[in-house]
Amino acid sequence: MTGEESVRQVKMRSDRLGGDASGCVIYSETLMDNIIREAQECAPDLLIVDSVQTMYCQGVESTAGSVSQVKEVAATLLRFAKESGIPVILIGHITKEGSIAGPKILEHIVDVVLQFEGENRGAYRVLRSIKNRFGSTSELAVFEMTGTGLREVANPSEMLIPMHEDGLSGTAVSAMLDGVRPFLFEVQALVSSAVYGTAQRSATGFDVRRLNMLLAVLERRAGFKLSQKDVFLNMAGGLRVTDPACDLAVVAAVLSSNFDFPIPPDSCFAAEVGLSGEIRPVSQAERRAAEAARLGFKRIFLSKYCKLDHKTEGIEIVKVSDIPGLVKALFK
User: Fold this and answer.
1) How far is Cα of residue 309 from the mean position of the Cα atoms in its chain?
2) pTM of the model
3) Range of the domain at 319
4) Is 193 in the same domain as 296?
5) Which residue in 173, 198, 209 sits closest to 188, CA to CA?
6) Beta bridge pairs of residue 90
7) Residue 240: CB partners within 8 Å, gap ≥ 6?
8) pLDDT along the chain (332 residues), means of 10
9) What is the pLDDT of residues 165-185, one digit of tens each?
10) Could you tell me if residue 183 is inside a domain?
């Protein structure tokens, strides 16, 4: 059921993407009474409604997309799904902040909320489970946007780790855990003298406030003078990173660029950095180390206070307690 595009527009996009569409029926309508009647006659295996903000019910005196209309449309589709046993996928818009547009009750009505994340300029998209009444929300899938649609990335680590020659400074690999899926990606940093007076701080895919905190820790606790230097940070692949385990890789990349000293390409990092300069442990360190070993890394830097329940074969565990200890272990 398409309320945003005509049948002809959907057909043109389908032809461009390719694939077998013989089992797909397209119906362009926005009135819920007609949609329910058509779905009952067709009895499909799956009903997709695009989008909830364009649909409306006659009994509600407001325009499509309003709070009352969205609530009534979602409730109508919920009743249809329960009575017919046909699963319904409801597509909705999101705000600039990334949350679902419209009333919060929409999230309470549905059983599962899936959200696509990723930068428009990047090639990768992350499909994340925000809510799931029938399973875990600690699952995600990574896709690559191609000219023929989305392609699943079965092993994201192999596409997000370094794609350049060895010997470059300012790069470090972080072992991140998003949900239950570990993968490795490259953190890139550039530190240069501030030529315009005020030092700039810029981060792509990383919280710039946390970057400022890490830079303050480096200056106050470890004695590195970065207040008069521009610092630029980038997460490779256009991913947005929230795992605190990336802190150590960010610090290592910044120090590498500041010293113009490359980090060995067979090393990766997984630890949180505290305000006092201590390096704190992160959860499921064994899984991160196992993923790094599988991809050929020889060393992984973890917190000294990290307790490993199982020994990881094929990789050296380097434990550090603070920033000076990291510098000694990394740039000796």
Assistant:
1) 28
2) 0.69
3) 159-330
4) yes
5) 173
6) 49
7) 117, 118, 119, 205, 206
8) 92 86 91 95 94 91 88 93 95 76 81 82 79 82 84 78 74 86 89 84 93 93 88 86 93 94 92 94 90 89 86 87 91 76
9) 677 899 999 998 877 778 888
10) yes
